[in-house]
């Protein structure tokens, strides 16, 4: 890295530290008023208010929630994007934080409040360094990450990736100590295929099965057969999981059930299996139903693709993080079977998502995501902010 970029990074780090207190206030406000996926109305207003306070412009978009903002540099150049998700979860918060959720039964239990505060701070910081900025940084505050089909695709349709050369994303990580980040080149997170199968039989009296088609018997055969897609059809080196999460059907002990609904999800780290598995699930359900004179209504509810981080983008993050915080604090993120709709952006544009360590046992910030006791260490905010800001700034400078 060039000398002037290094000194710019030091300035950037200092500014990030100065902004920390303000960002913590934003984050705590957002934490107190969490909103569910696609209902982030107050959250959207709050983001717009902060942006307006700093005279950072945002676009009009045909979506009820979410914000696309831009900081244009004083120098000519390309466009890069930084994304934050903004939604919370239907979880009853069980922490003792003084700023715990006031929307009962709704909680920022995945830390998207911290993501928003970090990305808002990055916007403020880069807005302050406009004269050093070659090109534009676009800030995507995306709704509904937690609820497939997710908010990424509608944001892409709204133009958030237009002319974007590289996109940066971040997720907090309560398994990684504050001060560290995690990177993984290539495939990092699984694809998600959410599906419903309705088995339609013919009801009847429990004692006269010959006159009925028992949807429960057919459904149980389908459930068993779906596990064989995993064990017998996919290359055993490729991880695949098929889970039926709920099963509903039947009314009484002595009545043959006419309809059963299976609600499930399939996850895989293989792009090939992502294409193959949904087709096979449908085929298997249909053939078993046919063999028993039942019918199937198969509904592919939603999908997220496999999340594949671009190596060049990871190198940009790596180089800038190292220049800010040193070499020894970067870990290799393990692959997980969880999904993330940031993968939708990565299908279209070069980019990567890094993990921001937020673990601090002293303040009990070590519970996993989606736990009612989930806590993040706010000391991670300036680390995330400076990493985002220097990666965007220095990459734009490099490709100018
Ligand atoms: Ni999350």
Question: Helix and strand layout, with pairings?
Answer:
Elements: H1 3-32, H2 41-53, E1 67-72, E2 75-85, H3 112-128, E3 134-142, H4 152-157, E4 164-177, E5 181-183, E6 186-189, E7 191-200, E8 204-205, H5 215-233, E9 240-249, E10 255-256, E11 259-268, H6 271-291, E12 295-304, E13 307-309, H7 311-325, E14 330-332, H8 342-348, E15 351-359, H9 381-398
Parallel strand pairs: 2-3, 2-4, 4-15, 5-14
Antiparallel strand pairs: 1-3, 5-15, 6-13, 7-11, 7-12, 8-10, 9-11
The structure holds nickel (II) ion (NI).
Describe what you observe in this structure.
The structure is a single chain. With about 400 residues, the chain is an alpha/beta fold. It has 2 domains: about 1-190 and about 305-400, Aminopeptidase (3-Layer(aba) Sandwich); about 195-305, Alpha-Beta Plaits (2-Layer Sandwich), CATH 3.30.70. Helices cover about 35% and strands about 25% of the residues. The chain has 9 helices and 15 strands. The strands form 4 sheets. A 7-stranded mixed sheet has the order 1-3-2-4-15-5-14, sandwiched between helices. The longest helix has 30 residues, at about 5-30. It is elongated, with a radius of gyration of 24 Å. The mean pLDDT is about 95. Nickel (II) ion (NI) binds next to loops. The site of nickel (II) ion has 4 residues, from loops.
């Amino acid at each position: 890295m060039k000398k002037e970029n290094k000194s710019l990074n030091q300035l950037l780090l200092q500014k990030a530290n100065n902004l920390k207190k303000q960002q913590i206030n934003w984050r705590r406000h957002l934490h107190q008023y969490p909103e569910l996926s696609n209902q982030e109305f107050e959250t959207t207003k709050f983001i717009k208010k902060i942006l307006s306070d700093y005279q950072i412009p945002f676009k009009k978009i045909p979506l009820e929630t979410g914000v696309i903002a831009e900081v244009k540099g004083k120098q000519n150049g390309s466009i890069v994007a930084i994304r934050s998700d903004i939604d919370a979860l239907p979880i009853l918060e069980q922490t003792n934080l003084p700023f715990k959720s006031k929307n009962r039964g709704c909680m920022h239990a995945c830390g998207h409040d911290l993501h928003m505060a970090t990305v808002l701070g990055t916007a403020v910081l880069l807005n302050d360094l406009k004269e050093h900025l070659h090109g534009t940084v676009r800030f995507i505050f995306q709704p509904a990450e937690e609820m497939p089909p997710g908010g990424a695709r509608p944001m892409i349709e709204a133009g958030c990736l237009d002319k974007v050369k590289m996109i940066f994303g971040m997720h907090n990580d309560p398994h990684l100590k504050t001060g560290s980040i995690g990177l993984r080149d290539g495939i990092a997170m699984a694809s998600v295929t959410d599906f419903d199968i309705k088995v339609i039989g013919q009801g009847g009296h429990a004692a006269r099965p010959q006159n009925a088609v028992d949807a429960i018997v057919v459904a149980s055969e389908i459930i068993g057969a779906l596990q064989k897609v995993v064990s017998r059809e996919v290359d055993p080196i490729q991880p695949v999981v098929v889970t039926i999460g709920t099963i509903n059907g039947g009314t009484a002990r002595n009545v043959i059930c006419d309809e059963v609904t299976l609600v499930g999800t399939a996850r895989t780290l293989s792009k090939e299996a992502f294409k193959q598995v949904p087709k096979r699930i449908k085929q298997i359900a249909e053939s078993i139903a046919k063999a028993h004179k039942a019918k199937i209504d198969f509904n592919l509810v939603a999908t997220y693709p496999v999340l594949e981080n671009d190596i060049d983008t990871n190198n940009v993050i790596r180089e800038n993080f190292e220049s800010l915080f040193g070499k020894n604090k970067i870990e290799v993120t393990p692959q997980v079977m969880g999904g993330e709709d940031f993968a939708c952006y990565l299908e279209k544009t070069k980019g990567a998502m890094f993990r921001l360590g937020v673990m601090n046992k002293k303040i009990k910030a070590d519970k996993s995501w989606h736990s009612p006791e989930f806590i993040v260490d706010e000391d991670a905010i300036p680390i995330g902010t400076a990493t985002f800001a220097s990666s965007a700034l220095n990459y734009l400078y490099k490709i100018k």
